[in-house]
Automatic annotation (TrEMBL):
Gene3D superfamilies in the record: Zn peptidases (3.40.630.10)
Swiss-Prot/TrEMBL GO biological process terms: proteolysis
The protein, known as: DUF2817 domain-containing protein
Positions of the Peptidase M14 domain: 30-304
SUPFAM superfamilies listed in its UniProt record: Zn-dependent exopeptidases
One Gene Ontology term of the molecular function aspect: zinc ion binding
Segments traversing the membrane: none
Annotated Pfam families: Peptidase_M14
UniProt record similarity statement: Belongs to the peptidase M14 family.
Amino acid sequence: MNSENAFPIGTLGQKWTAIEKRQWLEQTSVKRSYFDEVMPKIDGLKNDFDAFHYADLHYDANPVGESRYPLWALKSKSWSANKPTVLITGGVHGYETSGVHGALLFAQSEAKRYQDQFNIVIAPCVSPWGYETINRWNPDALDPNRNFIANSPAQESAALMKMVKDLDAPILVHIDLHETTDTDELEFRPALAARDGLAYTKGSIPDGFYTVGDTEKQDDALQKAIIDSVRKVTHIAPADDNHQIIGSDVTQDGVINYPLAKLGLCAGFTDYTYCTTTEVYPDSPKVTNDECNRAQVAAIVGALDYVLTTL
């Protein structure tokens, strides 16, 4: 694939207008159901958590999928101002399946044993339209995970930021669950280049799990604890020949760092002490969907077990 034919919509070197964005939207399709696959799992956790409806996404002119998506989160029943708060987010990129179901599996299987030490709030599917259409963007051709900024134009990002602000609780730990998939290079990065009028240069997808820390608050010990926990479930992504993963220098086995807040990333919008972005590789022949979900759980467990040693 080269830059000249990287994406079928738009003209090389020209940014998309509303016409191209509409063309892109109309070629998407619903492939699975947020209401059938995610909402019942949230409902099933209401005995263990306070489930709360924090916003609605409205896409009234959307020809694909629903025009309204209710956003739900789970909150510890034993919430106390005397406990530090942990925020777990999944499905910021809706197509990244284990981010959604890994967050829900943690709530179901492991969260109870941490609720005496932490307040826990889980937003398992921040981008339900993206979940249904298996898409990185929202219907406005915006990436929610580049729009955690003031006056965000992405409804998903703005809704989550408001929800966290309304909690009125300092966030000690923020764990944002993601995946890196083959479609990042086959579809989503070519689309991004086309949308922004840029040439597409093909990259590579690492085979394995890795984390993204914050260059502004680098915490090598936290990231190592996560990697050590996850390697019990799945393999860790190796560095490439340039000692990088997706173009960023590897600081230790399976770890890179980004300037999270500067890039408008979800993991960077809270005034956290500890944070990580997880990256599972679901397209590897070495893993199953269940292993991907369990890798996300292992990442959360590794992070929280480490933080407990620092309190």
